[in-house]
Amino acid sequence: xxxxxxxxxxxxxxxxxxxxxxxxxxxxxxxxxxxxxxxxxxxxxxxxxxxxxxxxxxxxxxxxxxxxxxxxxxxxxxxxxxxxxxxxxxxxxxxxxxxxxxxxxxxxxxxxxxxxxxxxxxxxxxxxxxxxxxxxxxxxxxxxxxxxxxxxxxxxxxxxxxxxxxxxxxxxxxxxxxxxxxxxxxxxxxxxxxxxxxxxxxxxxxxxxxxxxxxxxxxxxxxxxxxxxxxxxxxxxxxxxxxxxxxxxxxxxxxxxxxxxxxxxxxxxxxxxxxxxxxxxxxxxxxxxxxxxxxxxxxxxxxxxxxxxxxxxxxxxxxxxxxxxxxxxxxxxxxxxxxxxxxxxxxxxxxxxxxxxxxxxxxxxxxxxxxxxxxxxxxxxxxxxxxxxxxxxxxxxxxxxxxxxxxxxxxxxxxxxxxxxxxxxxxxxxxxxxxxxxxxxxxxxxxxxxxxxxxxx
Length: 457
Fold this sequence. Notes:
Number of domains: 2
Number of strands: 16
CATH superfamily of the largest domain: Glycogen Phosphorylase B
Distance between the termini: 15 Å
């Protein structure tokens, strides 16, 4: 295949996949780019006093990393504004938190135009361009306007909202129209792909054919679901490395004979952390015998701290966790260990392995690779139990987890209690099915399925 050009908002040079506290997008793209002598293009994360369009180029193995700096106005309007105060809450079904300002949409359009202006000269004939996530929906439109006729695919890592929610966005039709400059539009789940199809046929009087092609605005784009997987080989290597083993032994020593429930999330209102704390409180209220025998370790990495909604969330979580600990703690037991810092992937692998329950209960999530990492880190002879939200994209693939409605406090509490008491034979059987699924749909299968569909679209 020709060169693969990956475009994402932020760029993290691909390493060996075993270290660092990188997110799911960075891990997946690093694994994809290692297969090709490709280019990874995006924002450097740096702010410049005045935008120049100058590209910084560096090599990381066989991958060329190309980045541009943005102005402070770009960061505020494009990133903090339209991407994270308008689209992110809306796409996660929090229309009440979605803020729309004309300057946000102007900044969003301006940065996508700047990205296209910088990227277009790097594109050679035959290159395949793979654009990632909600920050860059208009990028194909801008590239086409600059004469780029290569195949361009778009993959959305977060959920696509229902039609009734999307139409609350001013200029929603313009946003969707921009997607039709892509040859392939990919989603994490059939649920999101179905919501997009419903918008096309129900809101803009477009058409869907039997081959999954959408027709609207005089253009045609292939539409499909491509659930992202783990870079399983590298993750397993990290999970069996020295750092993971040391962290596992450290966690086991800290258990003091108790069972651990673990949650690992970005500090975000979509993750359902407040609801999770309240469900855990319900466990302690309903099962007195579990008090002092179990604890919840919640790792919540701070993010987007300049956005008011995130500051409010952190304050609420501090208050709820403090109240629960105050009500139930004893002199030698704290019910919730609540940690606000980032951990390396290999460290987290050791933490996952020591946990009897992996608690992954987002209110809405595109996929959630933590669910998959928890399973991949387990001891095959004595695995833990995954409690998984039905609103995480991963639930479409991981039916052997205990699937719950995160809004139903009692149901989540019952699932936690059931997982803690689940017989070993059942835990092993569930884990084996889940692990087989992870191997069959790993990051390589995801990449190959998307690129194949893009080439055939």
